[in-house]
Amino acid sequence: MRSSSSVSVKGLPLKRRLCFLLKLVCYVTSVLIYCEFLIYYVVIFQCRWPEVKGGAHVSEKETSASVLKAMILADTHLLGEIKGHWLDKLRREWQMERSFQAALQLLQPDIVFILGDVFDEGKWSLPQAWADDVRRFWKMFKHPVSTELVVIVGNHDIGFHYEMTAYKVKRFEKVFNFTSGKLITRKGINFVVVNSVAMEGDGCALCSTSEAKLVALSHKLNCSEQKQSHSNKRCSEVEKLPASEPILLQHYPLYRQSDAECTGEDSAPPEEKNIPFKEKYDVLSREASQKLLWWFHPRLILSGHTHSACEVLHAGKIPEISVPSFSWRNRNNPSFIMGSITPTDFSLQKCFLPYESRVFTIYCAAGALLVILILAHFQLLTPFYFAQRLISKHKAV
């Protein structure tokens, strides 16, 4: 009898320790699941598609059916083998993958546009490294058949103008079905895809080919927008497209002096806003910008490259939205644009992703609480614990 009771008494502390250990494991696991998985759903769930105005004669059902839900992001900069540390790769790519997949499930966009600089080292990548980067991209940005993905080329994908080669351009085109001067028409809405790296204006072979395609597309769009009574012989044999003013999609922004006029929490830092932009490097040249405006008379321009948000008006009426980077490596507060678009109107709304600083704060708070729980369990939390223990030993002696 004594031996049996002795065993049960000795086994009690062990059971308590195992129970406490199990609680700690559950606590740590819960924190990890929230910070690395659930937080993306919690934050993106708060985003809503903006409403776009419809004509008074259009029913609500018809208006909803004619609205194209477009998700726009930029500058993912998947790290390569040269500059990318494996831990940095793992962290950043996990963050972008979870954000993108959560956005697809919660928002269900019709189409997604990525505005260039998909890769960080595409301008340097050898064939094997390029293949590995492409494989990781398709894993991160996998999407259902119901959602279309359109990827625009950026300078980090094929190099700046002086680094750009036909080989780099063709391998990008092959993977992403990209062509400068390509027209994408969905629900009567025209999107014009531009290789802004090839808008150097120096007559290089790639630049000339790209500009020729843009001029030809401009002619088609302009003929399609003309009223039948004003059509001329030049438009008589041209394929008619939906008579909707186009939206330009490109990596470089059109020319602007700096980000001085940009506002918002995700605009450039104050110390960077007044730094003048360099033409053909930070923004397109004045000449190239003017050409695109003349050719297409767009109703909206969407660009990336600067990693910060900005909204400017060209010619006093044409808005351009610079979309911030989608990577936490470039920003503490990445975001993407949600656009509700019809052939005649559009409405845009920004959706922020979890702030990395807040995730870090949650981890720190959870770590501090974990330490407190461990100290409390082993009765080490009382400041006078050690003094009481010494006194009790002294009395026992």
How large a portion of the residues is in β-strands, by DSSP E? Answer: 5-15%
State the order of secondary-structure elements, H for helix, E for strand. HHEHEHEHHEEHEHHEEEEEHH
Total helix count?
Answer: 11
CATH superfamily: Metallo-dependent phosphatases
Largest sheet geometry: 6 strands, mixed
The CATH class name reads Alpha Beta
Mean pLDDT: 89
Structural class based on helices, strands and sheet pairing: alpha/beta
Count of structural domains: 1
Dominant shape: elongated
Description of the structure:
The chain is α/β, with parallel strands linked by helices and 397 residues long. It has one domain (60-225, 238-355): Purple Acid Phosphatase, chain A, domain 2 (4-Layer Sandwich). It is 43% helix and 14% strand. The protein contains 11 helices and 11 strands. The strands form 2 sheets. The protein has a 6-stranded mixed sheet, with helices on one face. It has a 5-stranded mixed sheet with strand order 3-2-1-10-11, with no helix packed on it. Helix 7 links the parallel strand 5 (189-193) and strand 6. Helix 1 packs antiparallel against helix 10. The longest helix has 43 residues, at 2-44. The relative contact order is 0.13. The model is unreliable at 5-9 and 55-59 (pLDDT under 50).
Short description:
The protein has 397 residues and is of the alpha/beta class. Helices cover 43% and strands 14% of the residues. Residues 69-308 form the Calcineurin-like phosphoesterase domain.
